[in-house]
């Protein structure tokens, strides 16, 4: 989880996009009679909840839904189920916020549904933005502004694809939605174990080859790539929250061998797990990180 954070220092230059706030955590009921100071992009990663805008009907928001909220518009929201309602969000300010959102054809106050592949990508981007926002340096504000633009442009691409390419009725795909969702849930529940594609396919009643083809058609990547990205994301979360664990222990907890975890983490995030932990002030077992430091040489 990422705690709510306000970013006050916007630098001397007037950037077109700046980060006002950011976070990713379970939500509780909120009432904003005068709205929020900036436009917000809100992404649901778990559970469900209800939004109510002034003068509009209530709107349900569940996992995979994105919602853009205008600035200074009265609204309220609250969880609607027993499962934690986990929302990732950014508050965006700057002279070009509204014009960019309009240019990207991002609808305000309307849900944009994304698939599991996109949701994983968005969580990774959101986490990087949250950490980039706390950095310092001459290029800091440029980096933040660029990351916000990339995030909005990515969502805009997803939204346009959803409009241009609605699902076609197809007998071969009509019954695959639920089994594939079950496969994703199975990976999320067992990613720390030694999973094989054959085991996952068997769990949802498909052959390995048929499962791979259907999964890639729906999520844009094969199941192995999805599982790999999921494990890296879980490792990323553990590095942020479990300072008492060594890198080797974290690798084992996400079902990966240490050297493989370090190599893929560096490819994905641009630095090794130990460097990431050091840069953000996390601790960890010195002995447990020694093997990774040796691999950096």
Task: Describe the protein's architecture and organization.
- This protein has 11 helices and 10 strands.
- Residues 163-174, 284-288 and 293-297 have low confidence and may be disordered.
- Helix 2 (116-132) runs antiparallel to helix 3, helix 2 (116-132) packs parallel to helix 7 and helix 5 (197-203) crosses helix 6 (208-219).
- The chain is 46% helix and 19% strand.
- The chain has helices at residues 97-103, 116-132, 140-164, 177-190, 197-203, 208-219, 223-241, 247-253, 258-269, 273-279, 286-296, and strands spanning 2-6, 18-26, 30-32, 39-46, 48-53, 59-62, 65-69, 75-79, 86-93, 112-113.
- It is globular and about 50 Å long.
- It is α+β, with helices and mostly antiparallel strands.
- The chain has 2 domains: 2-164, Regulatory protein AraC (Jelly Rolls); 176-297, Arc Repressor Mutant, subunit A (Orthogonal Bundle), CATH 1.10.10.60.
Task: Give the % helix.
Answer: 40-55%
Helical/strand content category: alpha+beta
Q: Using DSSP, what is the number of strands?
A: 10
Order of helices and strands: EEEEEEEEEHEHHHHHHHHHH
CATH architecture of the largest domain: Sandwich
Let me know the largest β-sheet: 6 strands, antiparallel
Would you identify the regions where 5 or more consecutive residues have pLDDT less than 50?
163-174, 284-288, 293-297
Mean pLDDT: 82
Protein name: AraC family transcriptional regulator
Pfam families: AraC_binding, HTH_18
Keywords: DNA-binding, Transcription, Transcription regulation
Domain HTH araC/xylS-type: 181-279
């Amino acid at each position: 989880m990422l705690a709510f954070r306000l970013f006050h220092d916007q630098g001397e230059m007037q950037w077109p996009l700046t980060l006002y706030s950011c976070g990713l955590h379970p939500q509780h009921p909120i009432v904003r009679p005068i709205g929020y100071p900036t436009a917000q992009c809100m992404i649901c990663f778990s559970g469900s909840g209800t939004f109510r805008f002034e003068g509009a009907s209530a709107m349900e928001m569940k996992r995979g839904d994105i919602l853009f909220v205008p600035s200074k518009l009265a609204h309220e929201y609250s969880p609607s189920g027993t499962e934690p309602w986990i929302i990732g969000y950014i508050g965006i300010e700057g002279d070009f916020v509204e014009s960019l959102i309009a240019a990207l054809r991002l609808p305000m106050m309307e849900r944009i549904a994304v698939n599991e592949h996109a949701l994983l990508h968005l969580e990774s981007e959101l986490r990087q933005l949250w950490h980039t926002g706390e950095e310092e340096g001459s290029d800091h504000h440029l980096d933040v502004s660029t990351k916000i633009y990339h995030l909005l442009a990515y969502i805009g691409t997803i939204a346009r694809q959803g409009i241009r390419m609605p699902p076609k009725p197809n007998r071969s795909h009509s019954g695959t939605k639920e089994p594939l969702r079950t496969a994703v849930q199975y990976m999320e529940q067992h990613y720390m174990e030694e999973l094989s594609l054959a085991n996952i396919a068997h769990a949802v009643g498909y052959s390995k080859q048929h499962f791979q083809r259907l999964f890639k058609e729906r999520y844009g990547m094969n199941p192995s790539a999805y599982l790999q990205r999921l494990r890296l994301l879980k490792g990323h979360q553990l590095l942020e929250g479990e300072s008492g664990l060594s890198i080797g222990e974290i690798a084992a907890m996400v079902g990966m061998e240490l050297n493989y975890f370090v190599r893929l983490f560096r490819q994905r995030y641009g630095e090794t797990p130990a460097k990431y932990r050091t840069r953000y002030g996390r601790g960890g077992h010195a002995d447990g990180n020694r093997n990774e430091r040796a691999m950096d040489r």
